[in-house]
């Protein structure tokens, strides 16, 4: 599916497509993953805007998926591989 990388700010986020579920990665300037998440169809921009004040990042990369189930499976694999510092489970 399609991938796109933009600056992690309001203007960059507004350029992202929203017509499919996505897996997104908020990255540092050094290209390391700070946070990985998923967003349902039509919600990618809104979800990323929620992260702006809380998660530092220089850019965000999205990958469109065919279903939310596929997106969640991919998210789990990427989190296990990269272990981003802002992906912590509160128990």
Structure description:
This protein is α+β, with helices and mostly antiparallel strands and 91 residues long. It has one domain (3-80): GIY-YIG endonuclease, CATH 3.40.1440. It contains three helices and four strands; from the N terminus they run βαββαβα. The chain has helices at 10-13, 44-51, 68-82, and strands at 3-7, 22-27, 33-39, 59-64. Strands 1-4-2-3 form a four-stranded antiparallel beta sheet. The longest helix has 15 residues, at 68-82. It is globular, with a radius of gyration of 12 Å. The model has no long low-confidence stretch (mean pLDDT 95).
Determine the CATH superfamily: GIY-YIG endonuclease
The end-to-end span amounts to: 34 Å
Overall tally of structural domains: 1
Kindly state the percentage of residues in helix: 25-40%
Low-confidence stretches: none
* Beta fraction: 25-35%
Looking at the structure, the CATH topology is GIY-YIG endonuclease
Identify the CATH class: Alpha Beta
- Class from secondary-structure proportions: alpha+beta
The CATH architecture classification is 3-Layer(aba) Sandwich
Query: Which value, in Å, is the CA radius of gyration?
Result: 12 Å
Q: Looking at the chains present, what oligomeric state does this protein adopt?
A: single chain
Task: Work out the helix count.
Answer: 3
Major β-sheet annotation? 4 strands, antiparallel
Q: For the largest sheet, list the strands in their spatial order.
A: 1-4-2-3
Shape by Cα distribution: globular
| Number of beta-strand segments | 4
Q: What's the overall average pLDDT, rounded?
A: 95
Topology order in helix (H) and strand (E) letters: EHEEHEH
């Amino acid at each position: 599916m399609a991938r796109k990388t933009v600056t992690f700010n309001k203007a960059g986020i507004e350029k992202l497509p929203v017509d499919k579920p996505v897996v997104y990665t908020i990255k540092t300037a050094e290209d390391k993953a700070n946070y990985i998440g998923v967003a349902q169809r039509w919600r990618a921009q809104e979800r990323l805007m929620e992260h702006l004040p809380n998660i530092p990042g220089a850019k965000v990369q999205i990958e469109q998926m065919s279903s939310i189930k596929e997106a969640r499976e991919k998210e789990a694999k990427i989190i296990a591989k990269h272990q981003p510092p802002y992906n912590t489970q509160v128990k």
